[in-house]
Amino acid sequence: MTAWLALGLYVLGLLLAFGLRTFTHWRRTGDGGWRLAAGGPRTLKWWAKLLFGVALVLAAAGPISALAGLDPVAPLDRAPVRVAGGVLAVVGIVATLVAQASMGASWRIGVDEVERTALVTTGVFGWVRNPIFTAMIVTSLGLSLMVPNPVSLAATALLVVAIQLQVRGVEEPYLRCTHGQAYAAYASSVGRFVPGIGRIRTAGEEGHVGHGHGHSHGVTATGRHRGALLGALAASLAMFVVELVGSLLSGSLALLADAGHVLIDAGGVALALGAALLAARPPTSRRTFGWARAEILAAAVNGLVLTAMGLYVVGEGVRRLIHPSTVEIGPMALFAAIGLVGNLVGLALLFRARHASLNLRGAFLEVATDTATSVGVLVAAGIIAQTGFTQADPLISIVIGLVILPRALRLLRAATRVLLQVTPDNLDLDDVRRHIIELDHVRDVHDLHAYTVTSGLPVLTAHVVVDEECFRDGHAPQMLDAVQECLIEHFNVAHSTIQLEPVGHSGHEAPTHR
């Protein structure tokens, strides 16, 4: 009975939210409001629409599969849960219609980049920037609780991923481009899906890189990609729920290992995001670089966790080889495929940012290893289906663990080098000394040190010995400018502290370090 009710609410929601709303909008404006052009598979818009469509299909398949006999997930198979789901579904449908009506003539399904619609900031849009999507997620969650089987839960997870992609990768860039400062002011004060959460800071709030020879630390490399981290985090959490349910239903070690890895990766991405937020805080007299190095600590922790995960998967795989267990191929393959989709979404979000910082590199590696694991699970399912060789599951788990380990160790090594203030790999201090000495009036360079505070923020200090006449004729400031311009031009070091000295000054210092 509940499955029939859920299916009825699903159909009613579609008819009202898409059918009735389209007809009403057409009667008032002469335009149905549909903007479905999505480009090709290389665009986020295309992937968002594809995942949205798959989520809608799965949302219908959930109650249908329940009617066909698919069992619900045991912990959620409770009457109070189903009743709560029904209430949420009804509330979500009503809220969707209210939010759509609040948009007036600006209502659209999709985005046309060349079209300019009015920016709506009143009504429910004064509470959150995307109330329609919030209401749709509430509706989907309600339907999945009414029929809490793996298919329904997967539908909600995919819908969340699709909406995150659509909002962050398509709609927000369009609104920033179309409405400029008006949207920036609106987005800085109103949450994305929940009141107060997901506000976008303006450039003035985040700080800016100083000009001339000042040393404003500004936004870190990771801080410029917080949106990608948030999207990847949402995708990881959604996939964890899906794969955990799948592993419990199928008994697959590879799928359970992937679910655990996804959860750890979600924690890693959350850690990277939290570190980025900390690093954006301004410096103080006690923390002169602010919290910039929090990103490196996050990368180090991610490296340690990935190493531990790799060792665990290898060890558990060996144990399963010795003591095999039964594997259900169908659920194993289904949930691995769904997990692969979510992982690919996270991978796409972080791909361009992966070289921006060690923190982002760690987050990217977390998602990349998840993707490899999902592929491995699918391969294992195919081998078992074709040959009956059930040990393919632990064997592929071992291979995945061996793939994870060297990458985790490299990340850990890179983070450790920063924490130990090792000279950056792309900086040759002998070459730096040679360039500085080639400047006019420079006699020597000593106490030359270079290290990295966080990714993208190298720091260099040096004592530069110059001719006595530079101090007598007031030429010293120009020498300081010349040295720092040399460092910026040849070595991309914008943060340097230079001490200019006359030739005889070294006798007043502690022993120098060359």
Question: How would you describe this structure to a colleague?
Answer:
- A hairpin with a 2-residue loop joins strand 3 and strand 4 (457-466).
- The chain has 3 domains: 1-200, Four Helix Bundle (Hemerythrin (Met), subunit A) (Up-down Bundle); 213-420, Cation efflux protein transmembrane domain (Alpha-lytic protease prodomain-like); 429-508, Cation efflux protein, cytoplasmic domain (Alpha-Beta Plaits, 2-Layer Sandwich), CATH 3.30.70.1350.
- With 514 residues, the protein is mainly α.
- It has helices at residues 2-29, 44-67, 79-103, 131-146, 150-189, 203-206, 226-250, 253-279, 294-322, 329-351, 358-387, 392-419, 429-437, 469-472, 476-491, and strands at residues 34-35, 109-110, 442-454, 457-466, 495-501.
- It contains 15 helices and 5 strands.
- The strands form 2 sheets. Strands 3-4-5 form a 3-stranded mixed beta sheet.
Mean pLDDT: 80
Task: Tell me the series of helices and strands, N- to C-terminal.
Answer: HEHHEHHHHHHHHHHEEHHE
Q: Report the portion of residues in β strands.
A: 5-15%
The tally of strands reads: 5
What can be said about the biggest beta sheet?
Answer: 3 strands, mixed
| Span between termini | 81 Å
Number of helices: 15
Provide the domain count: 3
CATH-assigned homologous superfamily of the largest domain? Cation efflux protein transmembrane domain
Q: How many whole angstroms does the radius of gyration measure?
A: 28 Å
Sheet/helix structural class? mainly alpha
Question: Class of the largest domain in CATH?
Answer: Mainly Alpha
* Low-confidence regions: 203-219
Give me the CATH fold name of the largest domain: Alpha-lytic protease prodomain-like
Helix content: 55-70%
